[in-house]
UniProtKB/TrEMBL annotation:
It comes from Polaribacter marinaquae. Keywords: Oxidoreductase. This is NAD(P)H-dependent oxidoreductase. SUPFAM superfamilies: Flavoproteins (SSF52218). The keyword Oxidoreductase applies. The keyword Oxidoreductase applies. Pfam families: Flavodoxin_2. Residues 2-169 form the Flavodoxin-like fold domain.
Amino acid sequence: MKKVLVLFSHPNYEKSRVNKVLINHIKDIENVTVHDLYEEYPDFHIDVKFEKELLNTHDVIIWHHPFYWYSCPPLMKQWIDMVLEFNWAYGPEGKALHNKICLNAITTGGSKEVYCSAGYNSFTVAQFLRPFEQTANLCGMNYLPPFAVMGTHKLSDEKLENYKLNYGKLIDLLKSDVLLNNVEKTSFINDYPQLKNE
Ligand SMILES: Cc1cc2nc3c(=O)[nH]c(=O)nc-3n(C[C@H](O)[C@H](O)[C@H](O)COP(=O)(O)O)c2cc1C
């Protein structure tokens, strides 16, 4: 069974509605480590050695964060900058992350409809996430499409409940390694048949 590391980054968790529900649902699943970066490093001083050990002992890495200005909150970026060192994560000797699975789990205020060339955000979520995709590629990881909860401002409790259950299902599928064959063909991992909202 694969081990899943959820690198969670939310600058204002006390006021969170959506991420709080998602994280509470998955935090006690077996073989899942939820690592809350803002709780661990409020001063932004990341313990790089510890983070590398965590990465070494997990097979699936999830960058879980709300979408802030079309990207991740700053501590998530700091984590990427500090932890993914040359000749460890990438470069001629950098093979530590090779063949691990990696994806973003994001929540967005904007709805799916506004993330396209004709919508007011002009670009797709996949386009905004390109730096994450290429970071994973450079590190030899297998980058999967994002899990996305979109339109959070108008999201009903019922729909949020569905997303929560699907996030739990996704984690179970990632743990048992059954996802990889079809998933790369979908824009969002949510659209994988076994995760479609009933
Ligand atoms: C500083 C800031 C920047 C944001 N930028 C975006 C954005 O670029 N795109 C978007 O769709 N939503 C954006 N939002 C909305 C958040 O993504 C949304 O409120 C969040 O995902 C809801 O999750 P939560 O209830 O766990 O906080 C932004 C919110 C804040 C506070």
